[in-house]
Design a protein that fits this description.
By secondary structure, the chain is of the alpha/beta class. It has one domain (about 10-190): Rossmann fold. The chain has helices at about 10-30, 60-65, 85-90, 100-105, 120, 145-155, 165-175, 180-190, and strands spanning about 40-45, 50, 70, 80-85, 95-100, 125. The two termini are about 35 Å apart. The model has no long low-confidence stretch (mean pLDDT about 95).
Length: about 190
């Protein structure tokens, strides 16, 4: 795209960042055996009961970050957002819930239907940052380069000990040409 737009240097800088991010994340998480990988449920709706298959491009950042998506299936269509039951989620026993909807994440700890889900018991529910748009998907984009680092740090802080505040500032400066303040970063990462 940089070549097409006559922005070769910027295109190389952006693609170089993504290649470096992928390389650093893979160097940290690839040595982790499958049996030691954290399990993840990706809650994508207000009630938390829509998700995507483990091989869906919508869940790519989770996979890249070394997370083992508990919803294993073949993707039926491009939209995803498969409906599941609370009983299925409880049986999945995920270590983490990564939530798209802040309302769901804010209420799941007090919702009695979710009280038997391992990640809820352990209080490991995290909302995907979504400014200017979702860091994981919807839409799938370059934001995944930051999202997979955020996830890798959440899942394996010892293996991937990145300063997400500094990395977020660096990413936003490079990709969005925005200088974030500390307050901005607090708002993004809350």
């Amino acid at each position: 795209m940089g070549e097409i737009l006559g922005e070769d240097e910027r295109g190389k800088a952006l693609s170089g960042y993504i290649e470096d991010a992928l390389s650093r994340v893979h160097a940290a998480v690839d040595p982790i055996p499958e049996s030691k990988r954290v399990t993840v449920y990706y809650a994508e709706s207000r009630d938390g009961l829509a998700t995507d298959c483990d091989r869906s491009f919508h869940a790519e950042a989770i996979r890249q970050a070394g997370g083992s998506n508990v919803y294993r299936c073949a993707q039926n269509d491009i939209m995803g957002l498969d409906k599941v039951s609370i009983e299925q989620v409880a049986l999945f026993a995920p270590d983490f819930i990564i939530a798209q909807d802040p309302h769901f994440a804010a209420n799941v700890l007090t919702d009695p239907r979710w009280r038997h889900v391992k990640a809820v018991i352990d209080k490991k529910i995290h909302v995907v940052p979504a400014i200017p748009f979702n860091w994981i998907d919807r839409p799938p984009s370059y934001m995944e380069a930051l999202g997979m680092q955020w996830l890798a740090h959440l899942f394996y802080p010892q293996a991937f000990p990145i300063d997400m505040r500094d990395e977020t500032k660096r990413f936003y400066k490079l990709f969005l040409m925005v200088d974030l303040s500390d307050a901005d970063v607090d708002h993004l990462l809350q």
